[in-house]
Specification:
The chain is mainly alpha-helical and about 260 residues long. It has eleven helices and five strands, in the order αααβαβββαααααβαα. The protein has a three-stranded mixed beta sheet. The chain has a two-stranded antiparallel sheet with strand order 3-4. Strand 1 (about 65-75), helix 4 and strand 2 (about 100-105) form a beta-alpha-beta unit. Helix 4 runs antiparallel to helix 6 and helix 5 (about 125-140) packs across helix 8. The two termini are about 15 Å apart. Residues about 1-25 have low confidence and may be disordered. The structure holds 2-acetamido-2-deoxy-beta-D-glucopyranose (NAG) (2 copies). One 2-acetamido-2-deoxy-beta-D-glucopyranose (NAG) binds near residues 140, 190 and 191. Its EC number is 1.8.-.-. This is Gamma-interferon-inducible lysosomal thiol reductase. One of its GO terms (biological process) is immune system process. GO terms for molecular function: oxidoreductase activity, acting on a sulfur group of donors, disulfide as acceptor.
Length: about 260
């Protein structure tokens, strides 16, 4: 809830002169809200140190294992896009302190080996193979920004043409050429082969996509619950102290209203 408050506040601050008082309007700091509490220095620069101290103090105990949500999917499969955009990403935004996401783009694709290299055949054609590969390389090259970039692509009208602007938006320091050299080179080929191995090692084997695993496990019951309310499922699977987002408990914190 707190991170969300900060984000909302940032939007209000960025669109309102009031926030800056009488001085020249300028951005409050050069970091996105997701990084404001990463270090004390950033928190001070972004003028949110008080909020970050509280946020840090109310964080779940890192000793309690996070719920790992695995998604086996294809970049152009409508059902996969719907689940990623409308369930997985929003749930992660709210519950990232208690959950990790593992994305494996491959799904019902097929691979064949040709002289040390792999060739891929995708259910929704070559474009889908491209999308799978771009997303795989984005995960390999960008770190924290990978999921927002993939969400940005999957929520766009054209997944492939959104890739470059989405990268620019969330990882401005990463060059598109870096992603492309992975996509076209041996690294991408090897990473996609690893996606194939991971997908083909699923137990039970996947029968469709999107195929969801929770802490590495897939059952029909978990899949149904994930599809209808992933948020509730993650809250219920988390063994540590439940965060306020799960319980609805009120916390009297020093909210950062602008
Ligand atoms: C929040 O906690 C992390 C990890 O314990 C620490 O590295 C970071 O500096 C803290 N942030 C602030 C603003 O105190
Ligand atoms: C990226 O891929 C290379 C080649 O497979 C691997 O060595 C490296 O660990 C990967 N990096 C990340 C962050 O996954």
């Amino acid at each position: 809830m707190k991170a969300y408050t900060l984000i909302v506040c940032a939007i209000i601050c960025l669109t309102s002169e009031k926030c800056y008082g009488k001085s020249k309007p300028k951005p409050s700091c050069q970091y996105p809200p997701s990084q404001w509490c990463k270090t004390l220095e950033i928190a001070i620069e972004c003028k949110v140190q008080k909020q970050c101290l509280e946020l840090n103090a109310t964080k779940p105990d890192p000793a309690d294992p996070k719920v790992v949500v695995g998604l086996y999917y294809e970049s152009l499969c409508p059902g996969c896009r719907g689940f990623l955009v409308r369930q997985l990403f929003p749930t992660w935004v709210m519950l990232m302190d208690i959950m990790d996401v593992e994305l494996v783009p491959f799904g019902n694709a097929q691979e064949q080996q040709h002289g040390g290299k792999y060739e891929f055949l995708c259910q929704h054609g070559d474009e889908e193979c491209q999308g799978n590969m771009i997303e795989t390389c984005i995960m390999n090259v960008t770190e924290d920004a990978a999921f927002p970039i993939i969400f940005c692509m999957e929520s766009s009208s054209n997944v492939l043409s959104a890739a470059q602007p989405c990268l620019q938006l969330y990882a401005p320091s990463v060059k598109w050429e870096t992603i492309m050299s992975c996509v076209k080179g041996d690294v991408g080929n090897k990473l996609m082969h690893m996606n194939a191995l991971k997908t083909n090692a699923l137990k039970p084997p996947h029968e469709y996509v999107p195929w969801v695993t929770i802490n590495g496990e897939h059952t029909e019951d978990l899949q149904d619950k994930a599809m209808s309310s992933l948020f509730s499922l993650v809250c219920s699977m988390y063994k540590g102290g439940k965060p306020p987002a799960c319980t609805g408990a009120l916390k009297k914190l020093d909210r950062s209203y602008c």
